[in-house]
Design goal:
By secondary structure, this protein is mainly β. It folds into 2 domains: 167 residues, no CATH class; 110 residues, no CATH class. The protein is built from 2 helices and 31 strands. Strands 1-2-5-8-11-14-17-20-23-26-29-31 form a 12-stranded parallel sheet.
């Protein structure tokens, strides 16, 4: 009898602890350069790091930075927003990935990164500024990502149709600035890159099989290759570049590789590149006939013209 009572009491204690833990997760938490991760992450008692605040923030919640600071690398395992509005909030991640998104269960697996400086040392092989490996969507807005050996943003959604949006962001000094590459189990990836600068990379923007990417009102400059549409298989890749500056790339400004790859250019300027457009490795590289080419060592040639409208 006493054993039974003990077990019942023990299970009741577990339920109470779980209930208090759930109640302890706030929808809005805070980090500070002078915070401490033993704190509850409230505005008056903030945490020190994003990693420390994650466990105290409810799914779908927001972690805000109160003041300037380096808040450390973090792995995100639930829907959440990291914000540095109004201050210099940074993720300093020498030798490791800056932010990993790995949400393997649940619905609405959405993550927002806003007003963050994500800074790596640039010396360790295999590091990424932001690495998205499981989830539904990622919004990167008003961020600066630089000095990573592999990618600035590596978007590789695991299932379904993944959605990436990048707005008003600068990416510099990485091997690939933005990589969109759905995993084998994923249906597709959709990416919209707007008002963004990608520079000093080996490849500025790279899209692979099952990707549909639009680059708009952006500058892809000072890289080796600017924008690459790549298709290893027959599933196809489509990249549309609109009202964008492709400037000063030492290889090709715009490039396709693989017969199922496509890259379409509209209302853009292709200036000062070694080669303007390059489809030597296969694929469709077409123009809407409203672009400007000047100052390239060679403009290259398009595979054809694209008619505006639905297709």
């Amino acid at each position: 009898m006493q054993t039974t009572r003990f077990r019942l009491g023990f299970f009741a204690l577990i339920i109470l602890v779980a209930a208090f833990a759930a109640q302890g997760q706030a929808t809005r938490t805070w980090v500070s350069g002078v915070g401490d991760d033993v704190n509850p992450c409230s505005r008056t008692a903030p945490c020190k790091t994003f990693a420390g605040a994650i466990s105290k923030t409810a799914s779908g919640g927001i972690i805000d930075a109160l003041d300037p600071g380096g808040f450390g690398a973090v792995t995100i395992t639930k829907p959440i927003t990291l914000e540095g509005n109004g201050t210099l909030a940074s993720v300093l991640s020498s030798g490791v990935n800056g932010i990993i998104v790995n949400i393997t269960s649940g619905t609405n697996r959405n993550v927002i990164l806003r007003n963050l400086l994500i800074d790596g040392s640039g010396v360790t092989i295999g590091t990424n500024g932001v690495r998205f490996i499981a989830g539904d969507s990622l919004l990167v807005e008003d961020c600066y990502i630089h000095n990573y050996s592999t990618t600035g943003i590596d978007f590789e959604n695991d299932t379904g149709i993944g959605v990436l949006a990048v707005r008003r962001t600068s990416i510099a000094s990485t091997t690939v600035g933005i990589l969109v590459k759905p995993q084998a189990a994923a249906t597709a990836a959709r990416a919209a890159i707007q008002d963004t600068l990608v520079t000093k990379c080996t490849t500025g923007v790279r899209a692979e099989d099952k990707s549909n990417v639009q680059v708009e009102r952006s500058s892809i400059s000072g890289n080796v290759d600017g924008v690459l549409s790549f298709a290893a298989g027959g599933t196809g890749t489509v990249v549309v570049v609109v009202n964008t500056q492709i400037v000063g790339n030492t290889g090709a400004g715009l490039k396709t590789s693989g017969g199922a790859s496509a890259l379409r250019l509209s209302a853009s300027s292709v200036t000062g590149n070694a080669l303007g457009v390059d489809h030597a490795l296969g694929g469709e590289l077409s123009t809407y006939l409203n672009n400007v080419f000047t100052g390239n060592s060679s403009n290259g040639t398009f595979t054809g013209n694209t008619t505006p409208g639905l297709s």
